[in-house]
Amino acid sequence: MSYIWKLPQKPSKEFIDKFPELHPIVVQLLYNRNLKTQKEIDEFLSPDYSKDVHDPHLFKDMEKACQRIYKAIKNKELITVYGDYDADGVSSAVILRSVLKNLKANVEVYLPHRAKEGYGLNKKAVEELAKKSKVVITCDCGISNYEEVDIANEKGLDVIITDHHTVPEKLPKALAIIHPQVDEKYPFKFLAGGGVAFKLAQALLSHAKNDLSAKEKEINEKWLLDMVALATVADMVPLLGENRTLVKYGMLVLKKTQRLGMKKLIEIANLDVSKIDTRSIGFSLAPRINAAGRMDHANLAYYLMIEEDEDKAIQLAKDLNQSNLDRQKLTERIVREAKAQKINEDDSLLTFYNPDWSSGLTGLVAGRLAREHSRPVFVMTKVDENIVGSGRSVPEFNIIEALQDNEELLIKYGGHPQACGFSMDPAKQEEFIKVMKENAANKLKDVQFISKLEVELGIDFEDISWDLVDLLEKFRPYGQKNPEPLFMSTGLSVTSLRQVGNDGKHLKLEVSKGNKKKGAIAFGMGKMSLELGDKIDIVYNLSINQWNGNREIQLIIKDIKNNG
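Structure (tokenized):
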């Protein structure tokens, strides 16, 4: 795949002079992340839980929510936590169940079936829950469920919404809404569903009606952070501001997790618990948890997270791992079938449809195809009598806004600017595709459909040092809006190279400039035409390669331009 190398704007001399104590490379990296004040930079480089995690009572409806929950606890009313079927939703449900159980609440958890019920509250579930529950707390969903909340109100069911998805024009008439983008006073707008659920948990623990000791409150709060970190990384919200602090401390808790199911999941994923990082969550833990809802029911992942019996936890972890293996195989098959469908490369938005595809995998497939074609993609299938689909987009096209502008074509929808889900009547499908393609053509008329590498900085090869590697440690944990820094160096000579891996898929090489040499690995580039002595420009991450007690700096090459 060929890439456009996109270099950022350089900070002004005035900006650089404001932070004389910082290395120039660090200043550029902070500037790239739009961190421009001393407060933002201090929070980023040295996250402090006591200062950088905001007061949950800043949410305007938080007191109302807490009062109703404590009333339910006092009266022994059943509280149902209504979650979502992805890793964020499952984690959110576990967070709320944990805190409510600790407060001696009568609590149950309900996770909808992805294919049979779809995303968010549904009318049938609301009617069933109203027969036994008095309070429903949504997590990672609810903000788009105006009609369903009306039904709950008619049935005497109090609804407390905790959510973070795109806010519709008309808010549901819930008893309380805890949503960072609904509340003007809440300072951080980009919490994951698990983060918002955690704010409610924090508020319940710090509330005047809570009679736990200060130490017990602190212990209860901190042990929730493993699930907050999992939710935040899995849902790919920005790892800046409060999210960064929650994840930084959450990773510490995750390494010491008391959840038996989490321990078994870490074991079956072959992870070293002491070395778990955001990459471990994004590529190992979250996909396994997501696999439950994609392949059958999210309850499998939820039950694993709350299981206290060793043998049952081991079996659930094995089942979840198998679900993930099955998910991988099925995803590959659907991707192959989608690629076999005819498309018009001139279209600014691509659509793929097969009534036999699994609705649980449309988002994954859409993501793969959107990356491959560097443009928005909708992948659709049929569930019962309706068309159900997922969309994935590029930064230049707000996909949820496109759905909002044409909501009359849809039965149900929800999501974020870059990812969405929806359902519609099959009779509307043709018009939907036409309208979406026209919308994208207008918005993306000046966009090149070529993948971009967001290079952080062009650096002199001589500047690669252990000091630089140590400086970069301050930027962990990496994630959305805080990616692992990509550097560019030019005019390097290839001094050794060989193919490695199955079928010579990867390229191991040594590059040099002046007196400096460095080892490098280029994954997936084994077939590239490259010879000893060639002059190349590269884009790369810096990593540490450890072997036989030795440590050396290694370049992980993302792209190569061969200048011969």
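The chain is about 40% helix and 20% strand. Residues 79 and 257 are 26 Å apart (CA to CA).
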